[in-house]
Amino acid sequence: xxxxxxxxxxxxxxxxxxxxGHVRQRSVLAALLVEAGRPVPVDRLLxxxxxxxxxxxxxxxxxxxxxxxxxxxxxxxxxGGYRLTVPPEQVDLFCFRALVRQxxxxxxxxxxxxxxxxxxxxxxxxxxxxxxxxxxVAAELDRNDLALAGGxxxxxxPQLRQQAELRPLDERLAxxxxxxxxxxxxxxxxxxHYENLRHRLADELGVDPSKPVREVHRRILxxxxxxxxxxxxxxxxxxxTGRARELAELGDGTVVITALGGTGGIGKxxxxxxxxxRNLGAFPDGQLYVNLRGFDPSAGPTPPEVALRGFLExxxxxxxxxxxxxxxxxxxxxxxxxxxLVVLDNARDTEQVVPxxxxxxxxxxxxxxxxxxxxxxxxxxxxxxxxVLDPAxxxxxxxxxxxxxxxxxxxxxxxxxWCGGLPLALSIIAARAAMEPDFPLTALxxxxxxxxxxxxxxxxxxxxxxxxxxxxxxxxxxxxxxxRVFGLLGVVRTGDVSLAAVAALAGLGVPxxxxxxxxxxxxxxxxxxxxxxxxxxxxVRLYAADLGxxxxxERLVGFYAATARAAALALEPHKTVPEHESPYALEFTxxxxxxxxxxxxxxCLMAVQRRASHDVAWLLGRSMNNYxxxxxxxxxxxxxxxxxxxxxxxxxxxxxxxxxxxxxxxxHVELGQSARGHEHLDRSLELFGxxxxxTALGAAHRAVAWAAEFEGALETALEHSLKGxxxxxxxxxxxxxxxxxxxxxxxxACLGRYAQARSYCDEAMLLHRKLNHPxxxxxxxxxxxxxxxxxxxxxxxxxxxxxxxxxxxxxxNSYEEATVLAHLGDVLVAVGEHAEARASLARxxxxxxxxxRAAEASDAxxxxxxxxxxxxx
Length: 873
Known about the structure:
The chain has 873 residues and is an alpha/beta fold. Helices cover 63% and strands 6% of the residues. It folds into eight domains: 2-131, Orthogonal Bundle (Arc Repressor Mutant, subunit A); 151-221, Serine Threonine Protein Phosphatase 5, Tetratricopeptide repeat (Alpha Horseshoe), CATH 1.25.40; 244-385, Rossmann fold (3-Layer(aba) Sandwich), CATH 3.40.50; 392-468; 478-549, Arc Repressor Mutant, subunit A; 552-641, no CATH class; 653-772, Serine Threonine Protein Phosphatase 5, Tetratricopeptide repeat (Alpha Horseshoe), CATH 1.25.40; 773-873, Tetratricopeptide repeat domain (Serine Threonine Protein Phosphatase 5, Tetratricopeptide repeat, Alpha Horseshoe), CATH 1.25.40. A hairpin with a 2-residue loop joins strand 12 and strand 13. Helix 24 (499-506) crosses helix 27 (553-571), helix 32 packs antiparallel against helix 33 and helix 34 packs antiparallel against helix 35.
């Protein structure tokens, strides 16, 4: 379907005209189309279509029009009004605007078939038509500038004369016509046009011509050569791809200074040149370019006075003054009032750039590997940082370079993964493929896969296409401290790392580390993607690993081990965890902050555990266990305990081995791997028995009891719960005794023996309160609520569940929060609180889903949906 507004309002289906109804019905269609998928209130629609001349039954008439329009357009009724949903590429107005943004002005103007919205009559349509006409005129003027900048003045001249007759007071158009006349040798006509314009402006508006028009007039009078306009821009990169966000940030040429930053090979120059060529029409007075060589290994940075000499000579200056200040002042004078673009490529720092800045009339693009904060702070520059290409744009880049015949999707995807979205790496891949046109791309992919070092594989054999060399130029510009920390970061194998972890790695305080990291950020070698967390591109990290040493590894591992232990004890103060100290360890005042730290550092902890010594690997498995339970991360817990079990076997420690077997057993049973789970649980009982450790043996019985209940063997579960209780009492473990009392009570309740269940749970509750053990109290409240519900005391059940829920939320235990929410929902249904029950079950379903508990999520969602009708009633 095509919807046309730039002329008579039309609808076409595969090119065939569709009957869109009479003028009012087409007015409704147009009023909805221009909103780009946003809902339009009924009152606003009525005002747009009829204005003050709405008929008595306008609403009913509107409904009828909408009903007929639905034959070929998707129109939905929403609380905010009517919404017409259509892809933007099917509406000529949106296509026009997109083409204008892309600089394809000729294509954009071809979409116009006459005056917009022809035949639609209302005050609102008149205003809209005038606005759209202004957009068309702006596009025409931009197109004229582009044509003049490209030397097409002769071909453009007839159109300019015609447009000038229609818009005799348009000063920008007048300047364009004068330039075209001047460049075709018609100076006399150009000067006559200026005089006519000057008289009309004075007579009709009482003003003089604007400064740009006067400047064109001055140059014609001065006899300046028609072609004396510098065109120094290098050719744009032919395979430029993507960068839609960055191009949008750069705008349409109205910005005065924009600093483009990014690491070496990220595509800064390519973006700057693409944008510059796309916006040539905005700079009819010329474009200046200089490579400042800020990070060139073969020579030092270009001095500003040398760059200024080149600019002055390009501007026709025959006598170039001596001295930086004199040249800068002369440059500003020559550029004043001129619509020019100045591209300062590869700047070393702000100090190199400042003398090259013209006055406010010109636009400046600066590219640099640094972020140039001084340029932003002191000169109001807009900073645009470049990241890697997303996978889709990276694939499009390679497909464009390699051609459709060679670019099989699966091979391109393989090559893209090697490059990590870095444009230079993609270019190197493309160059290597181009140098061997008869080889299949699979051969290159196989070679890259076989190469042990990705940086060696991504080397086309010349210094400009060698990633190590390109990265080294950035590192060479760093301070000694920043270069050292950059090398140390090579030992980090995870997606990101925290400020505190880097401080430990470097052996520095946090304030000093933050300063050093800021220097690395300015050099675009690290990125602070969220506050306090830093990441590196994979290829940059590989280069850092080449430079780095292992001197900080022990400090980093020690930081994670000691902090994980502190976080585990914040979650479970009575937990037995081996001692581990680090001067860089963090402390936690509550469970919520500990859970937040585990959330942020989980990937790092799992990676460190795989590389740590045996005692630290076991410690980390033990420390993460309660976090994994609270978040429902059973698969992660299995991975952590597998590493911990191997460490315990290497240490030949039977208690550590038994603990690992016990936790693995519970996890495998929960994952439906019953046989494997019971092998681990039986092994834990065998290992704990000879130790005489009542606490350890009690924990093993608790684990077996949980597995038996999970599989429906309630009598077996009760039996092992009672044995666990005996063990904890014998060991004098008050906290574990309280927890076991609740578990015995719960299993009695599951067997329908509610009197015994309540007795055990009441005793557990008293002990938990005495010990100030909130997690145990929450679990017991859940049990007491279940018992109350089955005793017919639903009000007590609701109160117990709500108290348990508050405790679990204060502990940030989302796993048990989900369970309690589901239980609470059931009781609320029983007492007729259907709306609250639905909300409780829906939230439980969300948490279950996030935790990978698919069966529970489906059940809770189904029960919530079943309440919809009851809530409506």
